């Protein structure tokens, strides 16, 4: 089943920059799709359009399941910067999306701790961001994205700033989380290795001004 479908999507910013030019992209429900392409080819713009954070200049974004069974999708977004609140504990950082939805600390407790367990930080709830390594900060950011129990997780080069070993561990953990949750993941990266490691299907975006995708099916036996 297609969960979201971008058809002939173009985006020109008000300064005249053409970020996307006729992009076609289907994301299947439950898949882990990597979107691979060089810097500046429009990957972030495409992801932000999927998230509803930016409007396409032309073309369509459709969520077919919402049209047929009125199913509302719950989206979460993970950026390259973990953007944690430094004055708040790890627990409070992960609680934030629920707090904004008026869920009290006590009622949020189990879900926050469950999300922290999921990323291997069950013991760090009372710590502060400054006490954490870059990889652990990213784990907190992922826990904050999971705490609302999304069915679609959008990730924009989340691990690009991390060292290779930390990144590899996070890649493995992310695959485990994806399988455990039955999530749909759209993962933007400019790393060929990362995209092939994570996904059986990689959408390759070409550098501007093309921005057309090829879809590569990865044979799992080569990874
Ligand atoms: P939109 O038309 O979709 O609202 P804008 O063109 O108004 O987007 O740009 C939004 C903001 O991003 C502006 O403040 C703009 O200056 C800034 N911006 C300009 N160039 C870039 C760029 N290359 N990358 C990121 N942000 C940019
Ligand atoms: P990628 O994620 O593949 O690196 P982006 O989607 O961030 O690419 O950017 C695509 C192109 O659009 C780039 O040339 C970038 O500088 C430009 N761009 C991105 N955001 C804005 C903006 N708000 N205003 C103007 N130009 C932008």
UniProtKB/TrEMBL annotation:
Identify the residues that the record assigns to the ABC transporter domain, covering every copy: 4-223
Q: A GO molecular function for this record?
A: ATP hydrolysis activity
Q: Which UniProt keywords apply?
A: ATP-binding, Hydrolase, Nucleotide-binding, Transport
**Record's superkingdom?**
Bacteria
Q: What is its EC number?
A: 3.6.3.-
- Where are the annotated coiled coils located? none
Keyword check for Transcription = no
Family the UniProt entry places it in:
Belongs to the ABC transporter superfamily.
Listed name of the protein: Bicarbonate transport ATP-binding protein CmpD
Source organism per entry reads: Roseibium album
Provide the organism lineage as a comma list: Bacteria, Pseudomonadati, Pseudomonadota, Alphaproteobacteria, Hyphomicrobiales
First and last residue shown, out of the full length, are: 9 to 231 of 267
